[in-house]
Amino acid sequence: MGAKRWDRQKLLYDAGAGAFKDREQAASDSLNAQNDLKTAQGHVTAARNRLRASVGKSDAEIAKFEGTHYVDRVLTGAPTQSPGVPPGAIVREGDGTMTAWVTSDGKRVGKRRVKVGLQQDGFAQIVGGR
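^ thats the sequence. predicted structure below, dont judge the formating
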């Protein structure tokens, strides 16, 4: 649309029936429209790459999705198994690390640095630690 407006304004200006500022505005609008199109094409390419890399879709499946907007299946990883503790059992130390008191035999306890994940149903997930 910007190119058509630019062509029309150029013809009007060349015929002496249009203002120079209108011609320059049409040229600017045409350039902005071209840049917007390039940006949109870049976003589409990035979305295709994300589908290809993270979800494992082929180019044919991506083309089908673009036409129908229907995704048949998305494969995800297996659920992670990790222990959960009450949030009060985890302490943030002065240096910012999280620690928890742990026991292996119910008699002796030790303090371990832990990495906390999700908090759900009154428990904090322990996703790592030493």
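DSSP finds three helices and five strands in the chain.
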